[in-house]
Amino acid sequence: APIPIPTLAEAINEPCVNRDKERASQPMPNFRSTPGNRHNMPLAFWSAWTLTSRPRRIALLVDDAQEEYRPYAEPIIPNLVKLTQAFRARGAPIMWSAWSRHYKDGISNAMDRWYGPDGLRVHEPENACYIFDGDAGMRPLKEIAPTADELAAGCFYHSHMLDMFWEFRPDGKSYLDEKLKDAGIDTVVISGLWTDECILATSYAALSRGYDVVVARDAVGTATAHQESALTIIGGTCGVVLRTDEITKYMHVDFVEGLKRAVKGLMNPDGRKDNT
Fold first, then answer.
1. CA 87, CA 11: separation in Å to the nearest integer?
2. How high is the pLDDT of residue 221?
3. Pick from 91, 86, 78, 55: which is nearest to 251 by CA?
4. Are the CB atoms for 162 and 202 separated by under 8 Å?
5. What does the alpha-carbon distance between residue 130 and residue 126 come to, in Å, rounded to a whole number?
6. DSSP-derived 3-state class of residue 191
7. Whether pLDDT at 276 is above 80
8. Angle, helix 227-237 to helix 200-208, in steps of 10 degrees
9. H-helix segments, 238-269
10. What is the rounded distance in angstroms from the CA atom of residue 165 to the CA atom of residue 174?
């Protein structure tokens, strides 16, 4: 039988694991309403934490920043370089993905249906479900390419779905998630392409798996008109959106490495603390 769910009034008077009951009665500093409107809407929320809120175990995700997308990536390449340099300087992990769906891959799923079967004229391709330049198009941008050691460590892989976590090992576990868990990571900084597809999807996937999410505002890009809308949604629902210079300053000056499993557990797929 389902476990009964208490009301807030009932729960607040009982012991609650992983809850700060003193703080529970305080107003949210990361909330805003619109008094006078129906139900005080629109409401607004933003992250209760900042990068310096606690020691962290942090990794950089470079999402589909590949040669095929160079025309869309050119404005953000200098900031991608700054991020990769800052993370390497602190010995923090970096993971690269490359979008690898192509016309002959034989996959037929919801993404193919959404984009449809058209727009694949060889000299004027339009259908963004697929890459057009083969292996050359899947290479990471040369300015931020992984080193030989990073390649040998499995830090670069091909992706087939919008979120970077949706690539699986033979045992069915997420390739990226297991890499991050092995390093004890609890915070990810997301960069790359496209903001309104892969960056947005990866942000929600990371949150669902228990990671604090940071998106580098000026180190993500897209070919569509939805850049700012996507960043607004991320900042208002699942992550913290910062400039590259804010992130690199944190890595160079303010970064304090945390202990493994201090806030993110390994026993549950949602990353909850292992004491629950």
1. 42
2. 98
3. 86
4. yes
5. 9
6. strand
7. no
8. 10
9. 244-249
10. 6
* Residue found by looking up tokens 């040669």 in the block: 67
Sheet with 156-159, strands from edge to edge, namely 156-159, 94-99, 58-63, 187-193, 212-221, 240-242
Q: Helix, strand or coil for residue 192?
A: strand
Of residues 75, 115, 112, the one with CA closest to residue 219: 75
Which residue bears the tokens 């470079």?
62
First to last CA, the chain: 21
Place of tokens 């949150």: 207
The residue assigned the tokens 């500093």 is: 29
Which residue is listed with tokens 């026993």?
Answer: 267
Give the other-Cβ count within 10 Å of 70's Cβ: 15
With helix as H, strand as E and coil as C, how does 114-183 read? Answer: HHCCCCCCCCCCCCCCCCCCHHHHHCECHHHCCCHHHHHCCCEEEECCCCCCCCECCCCCEHHHHHHHHC
Residue type present at position 177: D
H or E element in which residue 95 lies: strand 94-99
Give me 204's structure tokens: 């929600």
Residue 121 to residue 143: CA distance in whole angstroms: 30
- For 15-56, how does the pLDDT look when each residue is reduced to its tens digit (9 = 90+)? 889 999 889 999 999 999 999 999 999 999 999 999 999 999
**CA–CA separation, 34 and 44 (whole Å):** 9
Q: Is the pLDDT of residue 235 over 80?
A: yes
What is the Rg, in whole angstroms, of the alpha carbon atoms belonging to the chain?
20
